[in-house]
Description:
With 296 residues, the protein is an alpha/beta fold. It has three domains: 81 residues, Arc Repressor Mutant, subunit A (Orthogonal Bundle); 95 residues, D-Maltodextrin-Binding Protein, domain 2 (3-Layer(aba) Sandwich), CATH 3.40.190.10; 101 residues, Periplasmic binding protein-like II (D-Maltodextrin-Binding Protein, domain 2), CATH 3.40.190. 41% of the residues lie in helices and 21% in strands. The chain is built from eleven helices and eleven strands. Strands 3, 4, 5, 6, 7, 8, 9, 10 and 11 form a nine-stranded mixed β-sheet that branches. The protein has a two-stranded antiparallel sheet with strand order 1-2. Helix 1 crosses helix 3.
Amino acid sequence: MFDWDDVRVFLAVVRGGRMAPAARVLGIDATTIGRRLARLEQALSARLFEIGAGGRKLTPGGHALLRHAEVMESAAMAAMEEVAGHGQQVAGPVRLSVAEGFGTWLLAPGLADFSARHPGIRLDLVTASGFLNPSKREADMAVMLARPQRGRLVVRRLGDYRLHLYAAPQYLARAGRPAAAAKLRDHVLVGYVPEFIFSPELDYLDEVEAGLEAQLRATSINMQYRMIRAGAGIGILPDFIAMQDPDLERVLAPDVEITRSFWLVLHADLRNAARFEAVARWLQDRVDALRSDRSA
């Protein structure tokens, strides 16, 4: 028979990839983690990890345990929230993976209100390049730009957003305004670094005109915005970023308009936990507000 606390240690190591991150999360030292893992392996008569240069990788036995351990964890969390009662404060950690632009321009302005309404929720917003994967439990939730096709996930479309070409007045005064998409080849274009585009939905330029390439490139949408704002060139920005800056001008509108969608992704085992429902409602409110602003 194994100890549930040892399973919690196992889950922390799986999610952290190494002992050190798991030790920080659990508040215990790495030696204790190693001892707990050894005890769990002995109880199960199975090796759970292979140790390599990239950290700890699950063995087939480890993958089998992970499936059951996540179900156990979800059941325990749901039971605790149900026993606490719906009248009690919603509390607990939530790790949310989002794109940098979505997090900076849509979520950050609403965080004060969210925190006031749900002071017991510890919200970790992760805006690293690429989305963390809820199906692998790298994150609890994610707002993605495409609907995932695999994994034990609950997926919901939050809504659409629009993108247009934008430029600063000083750039247009200096370089002129292109009369057609083909004329963009005569201009300095701002865009993503192709090798680091983490989602095909961010590869816009070829959609505007086949063969277009950016001369000024950045992995960060915020850096692209600042370059466009400073008059460096023409670039594609989400309207929820550009329309907050009255000095930016649309270029080739309405002929060039791109539509993308936000998808809320949640691990299936977490669907009924109150804190994730609270975050999901808040995310929907933020996207709905964006839609209302656009139609006003």
